[in-house]
Amino acid sequence: QLQLVESGGGLVQPGGSLRLSCATSRFTFDYYAIGWFRHAPGKEREGFSCISSSGGSTNYADSVKGRFTISRVNAKNTVYLKMNSLKPEETAIYYCAANPIPRLLCSILGYEYNYWGQGKKVTVSS
Fold this sequence. Notes:
mainly beta; 7-stranded mixed β-sheet; globular
């Protein structure tokens, strides 16, 4: 079982920035693409970003493109998500997940991810 642990999150004002991280101690971490998902109450879970196992490819949903940046440092077994210009409607629980399925461009389809972190709440409010 691949254990993923998110850190970060919390309260941020609209227009502000926040960084999340996703980490594991497992040595096979670099075998997996990592995706970021968010789930707000009453809304469907949304995959919005991912990064390939090597870090050579990233993908963003249109809703976050230009504002969010995903990166990884495999030597640290960590993926980072930098979120800029946050909007109130982006208040949600944010999850990282690991995907063993190889893709030239990583997938943000949740069903492809079989290991999930516990989630971190992000609240965007003044």
